[in-house]
Structures are given as structure tokens and as C-alpha cells.
Amino acid sequence: MKLETKLVHSGENNSSSGLKPVAEPIVLSTNFKFDFLGEEKEFQYSRVGNPNRSMLERKLAEIEFGVAAFAFSSGMAAISSVIQSLPANSMILSPRDLYGGSFHVFETYFRPLGYKFHYADNILAALEEQSRHGRKVSPPKADDSARRDLAEKIDLIFVESPTNPFLKIIDLKRLSILAHKIGAMVCVDNTFATPSLQNPILLGADIVVHSATKFLGGHSDITAGAVVVKSAEFGKRIGFVQKSLGAVLPPFDSFLLARSIQTLDVRVRRQSQNAKAIAEFLKRNKKIGEVYYPAFESEFKKTDQMKLPGAVVTIELKSYSQAKTFTKNLKLFKIAESLGGVESIVNHTWSMSHDVMPPKVKEEMGITKGTLRLSIGIEAEEDLIEDLEFALSKI
Ligand SMILES: Cc1ncc(COP(=O)(O)O)c(C=O)c1O
Question: Measuring CA to CA, how many Å separate 280 from each of 2, 107, 192, 249, 310?
């Protein structure tokens, strides 16, 4: 089946109730009756399994080309479950350009437990060095902590592509080949691209994570996360973390998310079409220092791994005061944290999405107090451009 068909139909339950509803019924019961002791049942207790969550998980696995999927109560719970599935001394390599919440939980929760993290400016170059020289040929100098980190065995590569907030494209095919050469697994946070535009498992990745709170939910009314795995073996480990630690997605949210995913492709294509027109409009405006958008990246064409450039555009204004004046004068764009909904949103990256990062780290990443991340919705392109044009005329 093609993706558009899978989004609508994958995971469907064949209801045994006789009612044969077209929309999935919501099963709120936490408990399921046994007919006799020792009966083998798919559903027994809702933390371990629920029909709505299991339907959603089948859909997620199919649309991301995995063997299994796991629905969590947030994107952070999904990301944390991947790290929790590794031994506590594991080394995780990530690009510096990373969602603030992921960086925060890696550094403040997982590092004290013994996990090791290294952030590379150029992750492909770092991996190429590893696979070229190996650990023994490239001994670290005592004062070079970056090299010391990279001299260790890397267990997991954790990347976003496009990255948050600067929308850089990482060649996922090349990354997966290099990672597998040194025995590391690859986990891709596919929140920004969505399975409509990019399928990391088909490009070689082992694990895909989502903040389903964003495009998969699409209406700014569900907090959810997902993990999709390529191997049943790693799936067992994620399943254990999900069911035992219990950050599961409840039945109503599972129903709502499965329903929202049915329109994913229609929404994301429209959002991406709007975003491309807006990014081009913003690029022509002299008041804007920089416009970041996947279509403007040389890697976008070179890798050809995304079907369309997506719905997020990041801009650089010259100062915090310009960012304040600009956002205050927007009427359609809401000032808010998140992204991926049908409505257009503007996020002040320094103080909102990346607030938990230390200022020094944000500066190293290139985030300034004039950085604004726009999430483009499904409104009319002309209305959105008019809104931006008016706000820009005020700075
Ligand atoms: C790329 C990315 N990954 C993960 C998350 C975390 O997801 P959640 O807020 O659903 O926990 C976010 C949230 O903004 C995000 O942008």
C-alpha cells in the first residue's frame, strides 16, 4: 500500500462487537475479564496493552517501515526509553544542533547515571575519523576531552534531520553506513520531517523517535511520543521499558493520535507548500539577517532524502528588541512553544524551545536572542505573508 492509504487504514481493528463501527471505539477499561485461569489474552491490563494503543502502534510501525512501534505519553518519554534501553555506561554521539529538551535530559538526568554523551559540530566528519583510524590509532591528548570521548566505542548515534532549530540536513544513508561500520546503532528523531516526507529506517536507521505532539498530532491538543524499531530484538527492550516504567499513551490520546495521523499527508504537504513560499518571501526581505530552510541547504538536493522541505522556517533578526517588536505585531502567527499544528506559530528559540540549555551552549550552536522559529500552518499563504509583511514593516 502507498503511504496515503496506510495513514488512513493501517492498524484498523476488526471489531467483534457486531456493531462494526467505521471509527475506532475508545476502550477506557483498565481491566479485561478472563473466562478461566491461565487463559491467553491479548489484553489483560491497560498499562501492558490497550486496543486503542495497540491499533496506533500498528499504524506507526507501518508508516515508518519498522517491525514494531511503541506509543509513549510524550516525545521526551519516547527519547528517554531509547537511552534507558542501553547499559548505563553507553556512549551516545549527537550533533551539537539538537532540541534543547533532549540535550537537557541527556546532561542532567542520564549523564549522572553513567551514560556518556559527546556532541559533534560535524557528526559525519567525526564518524569518518572514527571509522578511518579506529580507537587505537587516534590516541587522545590528556587535555582534549572531545578527542577522549571519540576515542571510546560509540554505542548509539542520536540525530535529528532536519535539525532543530537551524534545519540542517544530515545525510542519513551515509551516517548509517558509517555508524554500522563501527558497531553503533542509529536513532533518528523524525519529528520535523514526519513519515510523509522522510523514512529513516529505509535510509538505514535502526530506531525512529517522534514527538507526536507536533505534526503527527497536528492540532496542538495531544502530548505523545513514539518509538519505531527495525529489529524485534531492540523492540523487546523498548517494550520492556514502556510497560515496566509505564509512561504509556492513554486510550483516548491513542485514539485521537491515530485519527490525526489519517490526515498527516494532506496537512504536511499543504504546510510545506506554504512554508516554501514564506521562506522565499523572507529571503527577499532585507531586514532579516538569515533565513534557514531545508530547501536552501545544499544537502537537501544532494541527499534527496526528503520528499519536500517541510513546514519549519528559522529566521535571524538583528536583536532581541527587533524580535519583540516583530512578534508583537503578528496577528495570525501565535507566539508559542511548539510546532507542527494546523495553525502558524512563532517560537523565540532562546527563551522558549531551547530555554533549558545553558547560554554558552546556545551561543555555540549559533542561537541568538534574535532567532525565531516559525512553524507554518495550513492557512492561506497570502494571509500568512501579509501578516509577516506587516510585522516586518514595524521593525
Ligand atoms: C525535535 C523534538 N524532539 C522531541 C521533542 C520533545 O517532545 P515532547 O514535548 O512531546 O516531549 C520536541 C519538542 O519540542 C522536539 O521539537
Answer: 31, 37, 19, 39, 13
